[in-house]
């Protein structure tokens, strides 16, 4: 997989060469990752104090829905990465097409999560049921908000890409929007095993 | 060969790399799911699942986010993040085993 490693624009920048997209989005991404990181660790230590309750409650989650949603997000991130590749080749409509695929998969993720919540709420589970479900609803709910925000951001990028607002030479907006989306995917890679699988 | 066609060739190689990364991520997700379905548990299973999450995070950051071509500093932040969060989560779970 390491067969393609573009060299830094300036070899002297090997350590500090900027990441793709607007630099400001990376400070936002790292702030969000830090916030989620704290929540992940707090969840793990809360579980250590109440292992039996957390293990029993975890069994009530729909692991298949969690796994399907993981595959949906991974595929959406794949589409986002292909959108960047398309605009770098000068195909603005193709770029918009890949981004539409990304957003549709994001919508599928949100739909599955919404269904999961409905099943839990119908079973009488809420934020107050027990500490595990408090963390489950807060962590996944906070993450879902980021999915929805990512869809809105990509919606603006799609509109501009479709109109030809990005070119082979100028596509920072596409990289900025997709970087945010990949962060949403990245966080779910920790959230899924942590909340649904590890016991 | 013009620089434009060289660039396009590079991007086509990148597209294939992205597809391979997607496949590996799918396989790792299925492995995580199956470990849960079989009901495997214990210290080593927990550490294995955290390691899988670490590998998935690295793949997404480097190949999907494009940090492979960014400076070492930026890759280091993401790697460091996964290591710190992974180690702290592992410590919490190990405490629970005792």
Tell me what the structure shows.
The complex is a heterodimer of chains A (199) and B (98). Chain A has helices spanning 23-48, 51-58, 63-88, 92-122, 131-162, 172-197. Chain A has 199 residues and is mostly helical. In chain A, α1 packs parallel to α6 (172-197), α3 (63-88) runs antiparallel to α4 (92-122) and α5 (131-162) packs antiparallel against α6 (172-197). The longest helix of chain A has 32 residues, at 131-162. Chain A is elongated and about 55 Å long. Chain B is mostly helical and 98 residues long. Chain B contains 3 helices and no strands. Chain B has helices spanning 3-38, 43-64, 72-97. In chain B, α1 packs antiparallel against α2 (43-64) and α2 (43-64) runs antiparallel to α3 (72-97). Chain B starts with a helix and ends with a helix. Chains A and B meet through α1, α3 and α6 of A and α1, α2 and α3 of B.
Reconstruct the topology from this structure.
The complex is a heterodimer of chains A (199) and B (98).
Chain A: H1 23-48, H2 51-58, H3 63-88, H4 92-122, H5 131-162, H6 172-197
Chain B: H1 3-38, H2 43-64, H3 72-97
**Number of DSSP strand runs of chain A:** 0
Characterize the overall form of chain B. flat
Distance between the termini of chain B: 64 Å
Global structural class of chain B: mainly alpha
How large is the radius of gyration of chain B? 18 Å
Task: Outline the low-pLDDT stretches of chain A.
Answer: 1-5, 8-12
Number of strands of chain B: 0
**Secondary structure tally, helices of chain B:** 3
Short description:
With 199 residues, chain A is mainly α. Chain A has helices at 23-48, 51-58, 63-88, 92-122, 131-162, 172-197.
Relevant terms:
heterodimer; A: 199 residues; elongated; B: 98 residues; mainly alpha; 86% helix
């Amino acid at each position: 997989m390491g067969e393609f490693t573009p060299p830094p624009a300036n070899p002297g920048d090997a350590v500090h060469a900027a990441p793709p997209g607007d630099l400001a989005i990376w400070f936002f991404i790292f702030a969000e990752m830090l916030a989620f990181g704290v929540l992940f660790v707090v969840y793990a230590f809360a579980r250590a104090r109440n292992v039996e309750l957390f293990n029993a409650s975890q069994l009530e989650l729909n692991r298949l829905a969690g796994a399907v949603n993981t595959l949906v997000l991974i595929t959406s991130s794949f589409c986002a990465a292909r959108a960047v590749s398309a605009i770098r080749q000068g195909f603005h409509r193709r770029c918009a097409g890949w981004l539409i695929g990304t957003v549709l998969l994001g919508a599928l993720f949100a739909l599955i999560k919404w269904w999961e919540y409905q099943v839990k709420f119908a079973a009488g589970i809420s934020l107050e049921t027990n500490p595990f479900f408090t963390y489950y609803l807060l962590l996944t709910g906070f993450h879902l908000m980021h999915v929805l925000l990512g869809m809105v951001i990509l919606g603006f990028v799609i509109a501009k890409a479709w109109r030809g607002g990005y070119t082979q030479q100028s596509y920072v907006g596409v990289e900025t929007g997709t970087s945010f989306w990949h962060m949403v995917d990245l966080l779910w890679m920790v959230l899924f095993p942590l909340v649904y699988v590890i016991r | 060969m013009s620089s434009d066609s060289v660039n396009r060739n590079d991007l086509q190689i990148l597209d294939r790399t992205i597809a391979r990364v997607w496949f590996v991520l799918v396989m790792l997700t299925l492995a995580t799911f199956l470990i849960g379905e079989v009901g495997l548990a214990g210290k080593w299973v927990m550490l294995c699942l955290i390691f899988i999450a670490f590998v998935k995070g690295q793949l997404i950051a480097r190949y999907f986010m494009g940090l492979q071509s960014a400076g070492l500093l930026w890759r280091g932040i993401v790697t460091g993040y996964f290591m710190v969060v992974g180690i702290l989560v592992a410590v919490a779970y190990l405490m629970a085993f005792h």
